[in-house]
Every structure is written in C-alpha cells, then in structure tokens.
Amino acid sequence: MTSGHSTSLAGEITVRKALASDVPHIQRLISPYVERRILLGKDNVTLYGSIQQFQIALDPEGTPIGCGALNVFWDDLAEVRTLALDADWIHHGVGHKLLDGLERDALDLGVGRIFCLTFEVDFFTKHGYLEIGESVVSPEVYAELVRSSDEGVAEFLDLARVKPNTLGNTRMLKVLSRG
C-alpha cells in the first residue's frame, strides 16, 4: 500500500490518553475493521463508558490516526483491544507506538500479562507475544471471570457463545518485564 506519509514521520506521531471527544474518531477508525469482521463493533455508549482505557495516536497535525485500549481482566491480566489504525498510516510505526503505550499502562496498573485475540499475529509476535491455547488462569479465577458480561472476557475464556466472533483469530499472550 502506498501513502503520502514517509516513515520518518513516525517520530512525530504522538500518543496520548483518549478524551471523551475522541469517541467519534474511535468510531471512524474502527469502522472499516468492523465492516471486515476483524473487530467487534461498539456502541458509542460503550466507548464513552470505557474511554479511560483508550489511547489515541495523533499525526503531526493533531489528527487522530490510531486507537487502542487496555482492559484489565484480573489482578495480573489485561487485554489489548480495539487496536485500529487509519489505513494510510499502517506500516509507519503508529501501531507500535500505541501498543508500547498500552503496555506501559499495564505496568503502571501492576498488570504483568497482556492477552490479545488477533489476526495480526506477526505484528504481536514482533512485540513478544506468544500464541497460547490453554487457559492461562487458575480454575478459581476462571470461575470468577466466567461471570463477567464483557464479551472480551468471554473471548479470552474461549466460551462457545463467542466462537463465531473469534473464528480465525489467534490467542496470544505476553509477559511484561519491568525493566
């Protein structure tokens, strides 16, 4: 894909905590991925209610060009979710900056492991994520998590009711280092 942006602009990309006023931008960024069934769609009310989980990447002019969220599941486990980029900015370091910011958030919250459910295996592998199959939580924690109404938690647990949403996705996990 060709875009009018040079990779040297990656250094000028900034990542910040999302604001409530960013919800329309998040919807714009995730919409193409929802249409292609890569991401689950989210209602505005859900996005506003979870805006504190999001980070936004801005181009040099201050236009939102990427987003991503960190959702804490348990005391040592969180999920990267809703990671989406403007198509013109793919392969320019924006996703890497967003993921690095989300991982810093996880460390700041005392979370040591991050899960993702993704089609972008190579991208996450470059960041130290490994494919997983079996559950990575104890049976006691599983019993607690299964009570959650959050679809992301259901996907993490690989519950049958979310199987149509997860077909083709790869479950990956990264153990964060505090160094």
Describe the structure.
With 179 residues, this protein is an alpha+beta fold. Helices cover 32% and strands 24% of the residues. It has seven helices and seven strands; from the N terminus they run E-H-H-E-E-E-H-E-H-E-H-H-H-E. It has helices at residues 23-35, 44-49, 94-108, 121-126, 139-145, 151-157, 163-166, and strands at 14-17, 54-58, 64-74, 77-85, 113-118, 130-131, 170-175. The chain has a seven-stranded mixed β-sheet with strand order 1-2-3-4-5-7-6, sandwiched between helices. It is globular and about 40 Å long. The chain starts with 13 loop residues before the first strand and ends with a strand.
SSE topology:
Layout: E1 14-17, H1 23-35, H2 44-49, E2 54-58, E3 64-74, E4 77-85, H3 94-108, E5 113-118, H4 121-126, E6 130-131, H5 139-145, H6 151-157, H7 163-166, E7 170-175
Parallel strand pairs: 4-5
Antiparallel strand pairs: 1-2, 2-3, 3-4, 5-7, 6-7
Number of strands: 7
- The pLDDT mean sits at 82
The helix/strand order is EHHEEEHEHEHHHE
Strand residue content = 15-25%
**Structural class determined from secondary elements:** alpha+beta
Largest sheet: 7 strands, mixed
Strand order of the largest sheet: 1-2-3-4-5-7-6
- Individual helix count: 7
CA radius of gyration is 16 Å
Helix content: 25-40%
Given as residue ranges, the uncertain stretches (5+ residues, pLDDT < 50) are 1-8
Distance between the termini: 36 Å
